[in-house]
Amino acid sequence: MDQSLERYTRQVLLQYIGEKRQKVLMNSSAVVIGCGALGTVSSSYLVRAGIGQVRIIDRDFIEESNLQRQILFDENDISKNLPKAIAAQRRLQKINSKVNIEGLVTDVNYANIEELTEGVDIIIDGTDNFETRFLINDFCVKNSIPWIYGACIGSRGLVMNIIPSETPCLRCVFETVPHVGSFPTCDTAGIIGPIAGIIASFQVAEAIKILTDDYASINRKLLEIDVWNTQFKQIDISELKEVNNCSTCKLHNYKFLEAEEGVMTTFLCGKNSVQVMSRNTGNIGLLQLEHRLAPIADVSRNAFMLKFKVKDHEFTVFPDGRAIITGTTDSSTAKNLYSKYLGM
C-alpha cells in the first residue's frame, strides 16, 4: 500500500473506497458552514477521513453550554475566549496534520459566500437558521455545487442531499423561511447530544459518496431520525422537484444572493442574543475600540474578539465589524445598541 495511505488503512479496506478513491478524497475540498453541534462532528470526521482541504466557518465564540454536544471544545477554550472556528482548527490540526485545515471567524452572507467557498467540492450545513441555509441553497444551485442539509433539535434530526439538477433543492421542500417563533430552537426545546452526532455522521457518509462520485449509492430521500423514540423515517421527496414551481431551482430566482444595503441582524439559536453587522463595515481595530470604550465599560480583548458590558447587555465584537449583543432578541433594539456604542 502507498505509504501516504497508511493512516487510512481501515477506510481503504472498504470495498466502496479502496486506494483509488482514498486518493480522490485526499485531493478534495469541503467547507463546513457553522461549527456547533453538527459542525464539530462533521468537520472531525472529514479531517479523520483524509479530505485534503477542510475550511470551517463560524461567527461565534465558545460558551459553557456548548460543551454538552460540541465535541471539539473544552473548558480551556472558554477560558481563552477562543472563537469556535479557531478552537476547532487547532484541535483538528493535532488529529491530522496532513490535512489543510482553515478556521475562519466570520459570518457567511450574500457578499462573501463566493469568496469563502471558492474552489470547494462540497458544502456541509452546520448552521442554526433557515436564512443562511437558503443562502447556501441559492449559491449551490446557481453554481452547481452539492451540499448536505442537516438540522437537529430536541431528540430529532433531519438530513438531505442537495445535488443541483439531480435532486430537489431545499426550497422544493421548505418553500419559505419559517416565521420567527414558529419553529422550535435549542433554547426552547433543548437538544440531546447524540442526535447531532448521528445527523452529522450521515452528512459525512453522504459527502464521502459524493466526493468519490458514487452517485448510485447516495441517499435521495429526506431522512428523519428521532434518537429518543428510536424512529427512523425515509421521506420520498423526488416528485417535489417536478410538482413545485420552485423559485430557486426551477425559476432561477436567487433572492438570498441579492445585494442589499444597511444593517443585517440575525437571531442566534439558543441564546438571548442578536448578531448585528453593517454591510458597509470593513475590518476594525480592536485596540482602538478598546481605548474608546474603556471610559464607559469593562473591556477585555484578545486577537479574535473584544468583549464589554453596558447595563444589561453584553457585546462581543469581532474584527470584521460584527457584534453579538446578548440581553435582547429584538432586532431594532440590537441595531440601536450597535449604533450607540460602536458608532458604525
Task: Describe this protein's structure.
- It is a single chain.
- Helix 3 (37-49) crosses helix 10.
- It is built from 13 helices and 14 strands.
- It starts with 8 loop residues before the first helix and ends with a helix.
- The strands form 2 sheets. An 8-stranded mixed sheet has the order 3-2-1-4-5-6-7-8, with helices on both faces. Strands 9-10-14-13-12-11 form a 6-stranded antiparallel sheet, with helices on one face.
- The mean pLDDT is 89.
- The longest helix has 19 residues, at 193-211.
- The chain has 2 domains: 3-256, NAD(P)-binding Rossmann-like Domain (Rossmann fold, 3-Layer(aba) Sandwich), CATH 3.40.50.720; 262-342, 2-Layer Sandwich (TATA-Binding Protein).
- It is α/β, with parallel strands linked by helices and 344 residues long.
- The chain has helices at residues 9-12, 18-26, 37-49, 75-79, 84-95, 113-116, 130-143, 170-173, 186-189, 193-211, 240-243, 286-293, 331-342, and strands spanning 29-33, 53-58, 100-105, 122-125, 147-153, 156-162, 222-226, 231-235, 263-267, 273-278, 298-301, 306-310, 313-317, 323-326.
- It is globular, with a radius of gyration of 20 Å.
- A hairpin with a 4-residue loop joins strand 7 (222-226) and strand 8.
TL;DR?
The chain folds into two domains: 3-256, NAD(P)-binding Rossmann-like Domain (Rossmann fold, 3-Layer(aba) Sandwich), CATH 3.40.50; 262-342, TATA-Binding Protein, CATH 3.30.310. It contains 13 helices and 14 strands. The protein has helices at 9-12, 18-26, 37-49, 75-79, 84-95, 113-116, 130-143, 170-173, 186-189, 193-211, 240-243, 286-293, 331-342; strands spanning 29-33, 53-58, 100-105, 122-125, 147-153, 156-162, 222-226, 231-235, 263-267, 273-278, 298-301, 306-310, 313-317, 323-326.
